[in-house]
Amino acid sequence: MRMIKIGAATAALTLIASSAFAATVSIESVTGSWTAVSQNNAHGVTISNSDSFSLVTGGYAPTNGSQSSYSFERTIPPAVIAAPGEEFALGKFTHHNWPIYTVPSDGADTAIDWAELKVDFQVKIDDVLYDFTRNYRFDHSETPNAGGANGACAFGGNDGDAGVNENGCADRVVASLNEAGSETLVVDGLSYTFDISGFEVDGETLDFFLTKENAINEAILVGTYDVSEISPVPLPAAGWMLIAGLGGLAAMKRRKARAEA
């Protein structure tokens, strides 16, 4: 994971009562773009960065003539004052979930396994603006349009039940952080990390998003941030020996100067 380090002279942190060392953070803006997908340019899977940052997730001969897709629409403007652990809205996540009825001639899978969303943050810490990037991965679980044995669906319930399974078994989307492709903001020895806490659906934040077949499914993508102190790197034994040696040389030089005085 890359780190953006900001020197002590650039920002003075105002401590708040909810944490012994965390500053109040204002999230000034977030922008997002889909950057990778498990089947890019294969079987109709394409990335199209528009104002809503759409990602076409593929599909063959869906009922309404459109391909399934993800989209992310940033919250405008966020300008949220958030304390560590306090949830805030990153933006609206949408899965256009259209059934797939035709399989390509080569028999390859028509659904994606995952897609990645790059989110650029601009945050303000005590009136100083900082920019950094986090990458989030969305794992996609495509289900058959009909249930398995006795109509049972992979993620609970049965095919045809009222709710998410009423048009066939629901698909599932799970979001997580791609640490290797993300930056951590470090200010005055404090590390600020911004993660996804889940999907807000009907006022409840969930770890996963079950999406209805043949429907447009929307959820608020919810984020949180955390603050921790950066532990000082311990000095190797050779370093302590060097310091001791330099100290001894300085002491000898002082004694010699006094003797010559």
Question: How are the secondary structure elements laid out?
Answer:
Layout (H helix, E strand, L loop, with lengths): L1 E5 L18 E13 L7 E4 L5 E5 L9 E7 L5 E3 L5 E10 L16 E12 L2 E14 L29 E7 L5 E5 L2 E12 L2 E3 L1 E4 L3 E15 L7 H24 L1
Percent in strands: over 45%
Strand elements, count: 15
**Number of helical regions:** 1
**How many strands, which pairing sense, and closed or not: the largest β-sheet?**
9 strands, mixed
Mean pLDDT, as a whole number?
77
Class based on secondary structure composition and strand pairing: mainly beta
| Poorly predicted parts | 5-20
Indicate the percent of residues in helices.
Answer: under 10%
Shape: elongated
One letter per element, helices H and strands E, the order comes to EEEEEEEEEEEEEEEH
> What is the CA-based Rg, rounded?
26 Å
Whole-Å distance between the termini?
A: 57 Å
Provide a descriptive summary of the structure in words.
It is a single chain. The protein has one helix spanning 237-260, and strands at 2-6, 25-37, 45-48, 54-58, 68-74, 80-82, 88-97, 114-125, 128-141, 171-177, 183-187, 190-201, 204-206, 208-211, 215-229. The strands form two sheets. Strands 1, 3, 4, 5, 7, 11, 12, 13 and 15 form a nine-stranded mixed sheet that branches. The protein has a six-stranded antiparallel sheet with strand order 6-2-8-9-10-14, with no helix packed on it. It is mostly beta strands and 261 residues long. The chain contains one helix and 15 strands, in the order βββββββββββββββα. The protein starts with a strand and ends with a helix. β12 (190-201) and β13 form a beta hairpin. The longest helix has 24 residues, at 237-260.
